[in-house]
Amino acid sequence: MPIWDFRFGDADDNRTSPYGTGWKSLIFANVLEFSYLKAALAFLILIVIPALLVGVAPSIILTYSRHTLGTVASVGRKPTLFLLLVLAVLIVLPLWGGRRFLSIGLDIFRHLHYTLVFPIFVALREVLRTVSERLPGMTFTQEHIHRRRRIATVFAALLLGVAGLALAMSVELSVGLKLVDAGRVAPWAVARAALGNAAMVFGFSTAASSAIWLWRELRVVEPVLDWPQPLQPAASLFRVAHLSDLHVVGERYGYRMETGTQGPQGNKCVFDAMERLAAIHASRPLHRVLVTGDITDAGTRAEWAEFIDLIEHFPELRSRMSLVPGNHDINIVDRTNTARPDLPWSVGKALRKLRFVFALDQIQGDRAHLVDRKSGSLGPSLSHYLREGERPKLLRALAEYGSVRGRLEIAKVWEAMFPLVEPAIEEQGYGVILLDSNAPSNHSLTNAIGVVSPTQLRALRSVLNGSRKSAWLILLHHQVVEYPVVGIRLQDRIGLALMNALDLLAAITPHAGRTVILHGHRHVDWVGITGKTVLCSAPSVTLGMQEYRGRFSIHEFRVSPTGGIQITANERVKVSPTIRSLDGLDRDRIQESA
Ligand SMILES: [Fe+2]
Ligand SMILES: [Fe+2]
To answer: Which residue from 111, 216, 412, 514 has the fewest beta carbons nearer than 10 Å?
Structure first.
């Protein structure tokens, strides 16, 4: 009799799991494994250099303005046609040629804002919300929870706004040639002055953002509530399966990062879910199968290969499947070492995006369309777009050699492709909009934070405004509103947050009544409403709390000729009888017999 069965896993499978090793050991191991040199380099490139650029910008603008005004003055003294022409060229040239630089500058500023200001606001808001929910003296109806959270958000926005103004007022603006004159540069003085300028710019922009968040929060009067009971089940037209967080692993006996040996092994639970779904589809056909992210556990090649192999067994489900990327598909740097930071240009991140794009192309490349950024109308299908020009060659080179041009190309593709749109299949149907809600992350500490980029929000608004009689299912990985219950852990509220959820809601709310939001990420089973906006949160097929895990939902929708969409029924399907299933074998039985 063997002393130990390899198939049961061992301590190596628990290295990244707080459940397997405990938080203390995990933190200790992370401190030891952390690459401080890489982290310092990443900090320099992602924070310090962009901040210096932002700080130098006021000097460049003011110096240029003085130069231009000087020219204006001289033109005033001698207003010849020639000098007017020179002046026009002086003004128009930088505007024309500098548009590219301007957009790069705005990108740098936005990146810094999302990296520094948004997380501070979310953390402050959630701390205050948590405190407000712990204050004694009230019963916790969902309306009360909403009211307390609103007050906490208003306080957070005010506090941050005042802090931003205080920061801006406490720093002196450095302007003039001393920052941009290459002949008289004193590096440390320039750096100090530029960082001071950056602090002032961010102070003011933080105050402005806080004012916007405050205004948004004050406009939200509708509480977040559980979805009321079904309307008219008999009138349902569309049946849609909603699964999430499959966390497919790449090894037959592999465990998942989060749960280690305390969780399910292999992919049997996912296979069981698909098998059950296929049986449901055979008895009452499903219109679509929606999977809201974390399809894989760490976005590795082996995991994607397993997933593609698995759904090959279910062609009927595969042909109606839609996917969005989750943080585990894109942002896990190393599934065996959560301490490992990454650099923004790393091949690992590029490959994880590439794998998702390839999977999407195989599964729904012909159905999903890009949105033309200029016109807001539907562009080419994803498959068509990916095969334009030398793009296939570049992407293949990335897959094969990790080429630098391939990395640049996948970054471009990723930026251009979301939101993807699947138009309605038939008249009086509904379309599907797929969003990428993953914030750029280079470390496991921040891998699960979400953000929907401003370019996606713009395209989403165009699609919704341009189709006023269509109904839409909007898919993303991250949750848009917090569940209306008390006692949610602070680390979940901050670490798993969609930072600009208010911006997303503001884009969707004008179209409430003809949109439904579906997401995963929190591994929680919930259907709710805020105002007229319906939200469906799918649990994980493999992970999460005992009461939710191993489940998925079948939603039934009724779509009206004017694009109105209503959920008429919601059926929860429980799949895995036990999460300790060992790829077809029962672990406990094997242990007993061993
Ligand atoms: Fe997940
Ligand atoms: Fe997730």
So the answer is: 412
Task: Clarify whether residues 187 and 252 are in a common domain.
Answer: no
DSSP 509-555: GGGTTSEEEEE-SS---EEEEETTEEEEE---SS-S-TTTTTEEEEE
Number of domain units in the chain: 2
* Tokens matching residue 348: 């690992």
Distance 293 CA to ligand 2 centre (A): 7
CA–centroid distance, 364 to ligand 2, in Å, is 21
Q: How far apart are CA 335 and CA 341, in angstroms?
A: 12
CA pair distance 217, 157, nearest whole angstrom: 9
Q: The whole model's pTM is what?
A: 0.87
Tell me the residue range of the domain where 516 lies.
Answer: 225-593
Share of the chain above pLDDT 70, in %: 85
Q: Which ligand is closest in space to the CA of residue 327? A: 2
Determine the 3-state secondary structure of 431 from DSSP. strand
Q: Which residues surround ligand 2, an ion (CB under 5 A)?
A: 294, 326-327, 521
**Same domain (yes/no): 103, 90:** yes
Joined together, the tokens standing for residue 460 give 């989403």
| Residues 245, 178 within the same domain | no
Residues 197 and 247 placed together within one structural domain of the fold: no
Residues 355 and 380 in one domain: yes
Q: pLDDT tens digits for 405-429?
A: 999 999 999 999 999 999 987 766 8
The Å distance, Cα 521 to ligand 1 centre, comes to 5
